[in-house]
UniProtKB/TrEMBL annotation:
This is Actin-related protein 10. It comes from the Eukaryota. Belongs to the actin family. It holds the Pfam family Actin. Gene3D superfamilies: 3.30.420.40, Actin, Chain A, domain 4 (3.90.640.10).
Length: 486
């Protein structure tokens, strides 16, 4: 059992990464299919379920509507049944292994719902008899970058989470989240497709002519986009291939007169983005307007001037990624802010959109340049200091990679449960007490110190078993040299 590689899982609201340690990338990235349950936002951060839904129109107006079928929280039996089928698919269809011979490393969101964690542990131990379960928190994403300080910005499917880590310790008091992610972009694109059912939006591939019959357009969009079970994947592909983050001039250092004189020039010099045809089948293609291609991402930086606390609370749920990051920095100590701004680490698939980094910096500068704002009073000195950690890995599996490395040093990780200790617990309550809770810890496990402690020993989490080092692109960097010279 000890000679076999451990299984590393990162269960997200939309996708699950699964693979073996100590490999440098997950073998499969599969949809988190917990059918018949649809609990993507519940997995992201324990979001409450009700029959009210907020929608943001193109005019930045918030409309509250009522769902026809109110969503209810899943029960324990429902979760266990769905998780049993889900893990069976992973073990038998993808990883092709016996569950009772493999240790399980779970890279999780620190605010994953308690009920889901209990059901997951129960299924893995009682049904699949796994020998060991280890819980890894998001600070493990720093291990592949060889950093101890970073501002983690995890923009996933349902929400964006911001967690500052200073010298390997997570600052939980400054943790912020906002309900913005790829799901927001998908809903916005779906509204566009539904509202622009006009002549010319669908093109026949054989004749290369637009379909003029509105009834046919309606039927095609309903069949292909709206009512299709794979519509979410199709819309995700449209966003990935066709959309990008546009760059706007957000500098407000000039005088008002100069800005007024330059407005006309900026409008005249604005880059025109061409429409693009996206093939949805052999017969038809759909036209994606240029304004949607460059303007779809703007909803992530919805800027609303709040005058009362109620509007501020609403903005925390719907609001602005840039403001969420600055609010996190405000919660940090003064001497921590600049090191954090120098080490921004992007996680999640949403951050992989073209131009995301540059647009994020421009939006941060825009908020810092606003007159009479708390950001300008407290954080204005950070202008020009926002820098990103460069690494050769993809943002969407960086946390998984940290768990893969730490799987080679499990003896130093405390957040683990063995099958024997779980089954020997006298009651279900005692079993639930074995599951680690991050809010009960005085500090999050310092995984960077674990990596440093194992340097030079037989177990080296910074070196894969293969002949090529995981960090070969960093052999000339000062960070790695400092570690190796110790």
């Amino acid at each position: 059992m000890d000679s076999k590689s451990s299984i590393v899982l990162e269960i997200g609201g939309r996708y699950t990464k699964c693979g073996y340690s100590p490999e440098s990338s997950p073998r499969f990235i599969i949809p988190t299919d917990l059918l018949p349950l649809n609990i993507s936002s519940y997995l992201s951060g324990g979001a409450s379920f009700d029959n009210f839904k907020k929608e943001i129109t193109s005019n930045n107006e918030t409309i509250i509507t009522t769902n026809q079928i109110p969503t209810q929280l899943p029960t324990q039996s429902q979760l266990k049944e769905s998780l049993f089928i889900f893990f069976k698919t992973i073990f038998l269809n993808y990883l092709l292994c016996k569950s009772d011979e493999r240790k399980i490393i779970i890279v999780e969101n620190i605010f994953l719902p308690r009920l889901f964690r209990e059901c997951m542990v129960s299924v893995l131990f009682e049904q699949y008899k796994v020998p060991l379960i280890v819980f890894i928190n998001p600070t493990a994403s720093l291990i592949p970058t060889l950093r101890t300080t970073a501002l983690l910005i995890d923009s996933g499917f349902s929400e964006t989470r911001v967690l500052p880590i200073y010298e390997g310790i997570g600052i939980l008091k400054a943790y912020k989240s906002v309900s913005l992610g790829s799901e927001t972009l998908i809903n916005q694109l779906k509204q566009y497709l539904q509202s622009t059912i006009i002549n010319g939006i669908i093109i026949n591939n054989e004749t290369n002519q637009s379909i003029t019959d509105s009834t046919i357009c309606n039927q095609l969009l309903n069949d292909i986009i709206i009512m299709n079970n794979n519509s979410t994947q199709l819309l995700e592909d449209i966003i990935t291939r066709c959309c990008f983050c546009s760059f706007k001039n957000n500098n407000n250092n000039n005088n008002n007169n100069n800005n007024n004189n330059n407005n006309n020039n900026n409008n005249n010099n604005e880059i025109q983005i061409n429409n693009i045809n996206y093939r949805i089948s052999k017969e038809y293609s759909i036209v994606i307007d240029g304004k949607i291609r460059k303007g779809l991402i703007d909803i992530l930086y919805n800027d609303v001037n709040n005058n009362n606390k109620e509007e501020e609370e609403e903005e925390e749920e719907t609001g602005n990624i840039a403001k969420t990051i600055l609010n996190t920095l405000l919660k940090c100590e003064y001497d921590q802010r600049k090191p954090l701004s120098h080490n921004i680490l992007l996680l999640g698939g949403t951050t992989m959109l073209t131009g995301f980094k540059k647009r994020l910096v421009l939006e941060l500068h825009k908020q810092l340049n606003k007159d009479n704002s708390i950001y300008k009073k407290e954080l204005y000195g950070l202008i020009g200091h926002f820098q990103f950690i460069n690494h050769p890995f993809e943002n969407n599996y960086l946390s998984w990679l940290g768990g893969s490395i730490l799987a080679t040093a499990l003896e130093h990780v405390h957040s683990k449960i063995t099958l024997e200790s779980y089954l020997n617990a006298p009651s279900q309550f005692k079993r639930s007490q074995l599951i680690p809770e991050w809010e009960k810890l005085t500090n999050i496990n310092n995984y960077t110190q674990i990596a440093q402690a194992t340097m030079g020993t037989t177990t080296n989490p910074l070196q894969f078993n293969s002949t090529s080092s995981l960090f070969s692109p960093f052999t000339s960097s000062s960070d790695l040299s400092n570690y190796l010279n110790k």
